[in-house]
Amino acid sequence: MSLATHQLELLSPARTAEIGREAVLHGADAVYIGGPAFGARTNAENSVSEIAGLVEFAHRYGSRIMVTLNTILHDSELDAARKLVREYYDAGVDALIVQDMALLELDLPPIQLHASTQCDIRTVEKAKFLSQAGFSQIVLARELTVDKIKAIHEAIDPAIALEFFIHGALCVAFSGNCYISHAHSGRSANRGSCSQDCRLPYTLEDSQGRVVAYDKHLLSMKDNDQSANLAALVDAGIRSFKIEGRYKDMSYVKNITAHYRLLLDELLTQRPELAKSSHGASAFSFTPETDKTFNRSATDYFVTGRKIDIGAFDAPTHVGLPLGTVTKIGPDWFELAATEPLANSDGLTYMNKREVRGMQANVVKQLGTRQDEDHAGNRIELGRWRVEPNQAMKELAGLRVGTAISRNRDHAWEQALLKKSAERRIALDLLFAETDDGFSLTLADETGACAYVTVDHARQPAQHAERAESGLRENLAKLGNTIFAAREIDIVWSQPWFAPASLINQLRRDAVAALEAERAARLPRWTRTPAIDPPIAYPEKSLSYLANVYNEAARRFYTKHGVELIDAAYESHEEDGEVPVMVTKHCLRFSFNLCPKQAKGVQGVQGQVRAEPMTLINGNERMTLRFDCKPCEMHVMSKIRKHIFDGPPPSTVEVPVTFHKKRPAAPAI
C-alpha cells in the first residue's frame, strides 16, 4: 500500500517529537523523524517511546510518521538495526526511510520501506529497479529537472510514490556520494556525522596556478525553494513534497510547513481531481514568510534547468531581509532609517569586504518618521530608529553612514511563533434526532467515518421553541477541546423538545469518543510493497565504492540481483589513493564562465576553453577538480588521511540501544 495516485503529501521534518506535533498542527500530511540510532543526523535522535507518542498524535489526523534509518550499516550493527525496526513497527510507525540495501535482506516486520535520497536516484534505470525491489516510495535526487522526473514517473509502476525535496538546505554533492568529511576528519556523512566541509571558504586556481576566486564558499549552495514549481512537479509525477530540516528549530518547521500548506491547498482548490493525504484544515495566527527563517537565499536548483547563480559563495549564513540604511553614528549607538519596525533583540547584519557581519540590537528606540522614495519613485514612510548594539561600535568594522542593514532575526515575529500559532480541525457534520426513548446524535467527518450514540431521556416540550433550537445548536457546536469543527448541524424532531445542556454535553462527548475510535479502526496500516520474484537484474554488473556497500547483507542483495563485482564502501578503508570524494552537478567552470559548452558557438572563443583540472585550496588542503562534461559533473579529488585510513572502519556497535519489552502505551485520547 502506498499513496494513492491522486493524493499529495506534505512531508515535514522533526528534530524532536514536540516539533513533529507542531508540524502536524501546521498542516503536515506526514512527518519524518530520527530514532535512537542509525539516522543520518546523529544529533537529532529520539526514543522509541517519544516516537510512539508522536505516532498516536499524528494518526488522529490521518498523518503518517516516517523514521529515518538511512545510514549505511556495519556488519556488527545489523542485528541491533533489525531489533530496532521491530520496535518501530510495534510503535505504529508507518514507514522507514533507508539507504542500506541490507535491510531488504533482513527478517523484518512488513513495515513500509522508502528509498532515501542517500540512494542517489537520478536515472530511470535505478528508479525502476528500486520500485521493483521492495520500496513503496522513492526519494529522487535533488539535481533532477522536471523532464527527468517525468521520465522516471512514466517508467515505473504508478503505485510507487515519488518524493522530492522542495525546501531547505542543499547538499552540493549527489546524496550518498560525498566522502570529504570522512577523508579529512573521519566523520562519515553516510554514517550521519558530516563535518560540512562544503561550507568552508576555498580559493580556486586554474591549471596554470592563476587565482579564479579567492577565499569564497565555492561548494556552498543557496537553499532550495520550489514554491513556484509545485504545479509542474505535480504534473511530472511528484506526490510527496519534502521539506529539509531535521536539525532545524521549531519556528522554521512551523513557518515553512505553513507556507507550503497554503500553496498546496491553493493548488488542490485549482485541481479538484487531486486530494491531500491526511485530514483536517489548519488555521494560522501568523503569516508564513520563508525569508524570516534561516536561509542562504533561494534557488530552484536544477528543476527548471541549469543556472549560473545557484551558489552561496559570499556567505553560507543567513543574511536576512533588507531593513534600512544607517543615517548617523554615535559613541555607542547608530541611527537607522528602516522600512519596518524594530524590536529589542533583533538580529542585524551588514556586509563588510564581502563578509557578513552580525550584531544583536540590545535596545531600540523609535525617534520618529520621515518620507522618502523607493527605487520606483513611490513615496514611502521610513521609521527613524536608534539602535544600541550588543558590542562596542569600534568592533563593528565597516559600519558607517550609508551602510545597508538587513535583519536576519525578527524577534517579535519569532516570539509569536513560540506561542500557539496553529489549529487543525477536521470538518464534522452533526445530526441530532429524537428517538422512541430519548435522543440520538450522529457524527460524520470529512472522510466518511461515522458514529451514532443514543441516550434515554423523557421528552418534554420546550417552553420557547426558537430558544430551544438555537441553544441546542450552540451546545452541539462546542467542539473546542476536540480535533473537530462543526460544518453542518441538522436537527430532526417532531417538535422542539427540552434537552438539558448536561445531557447534550454528555451525548456529544460520547459521540466524539466513538468517532475517534472509528477513525482509529479505519486507519490503514501501511505495508511493504513486495519485491518482484524472481529478483530483477540491477542496471549495472559492477559497483564501485560509490554504491556504499558496507556489510555482507547488502553484498548479498546486489549479488542476488546479478551484480558480479562489488567494491567495499569508502568507509571500509580500502581506497587509499586519490579518488572522487565528492561527485556533484555543481560545476565551478560553469559558475565562472569557463565551461567549454558555454563557449560553444561563440566566435573567437570556441575551442579555446577546455575542461582542464582546477584546484580547490583551504589552508594546507588542496583538492583537484576534474570535469566530466558529458553528464555535466564535477569530481572533487582527494585522499583519505593516513591516520584515518589506518584506524578501524566506523561502527557504532559500542553505543547501547535501549529496547522496550512491549509496545509503549498510547496516550489517552
UniProtKB/TrEMBL annotation:
InterPro entries named in the record: Pept_U32_collagenase (IPR020988), Peptidase_U32 (IPR001539), RNA/ubiquinone_mod_enzymes (IPR051454)
PROSITE patterns: PEPTIDASE_U32
Residues making up the signal peptide according to the UniProt record: none
Cited Pfam families: DUF3656, Peptidase_U32
Top-level division of the source organism's lineage: Bacteria
Peptidase U32 collagenase domain mapped to chain residues: 406-519
Protein name as catalogued: U32 family peptidase
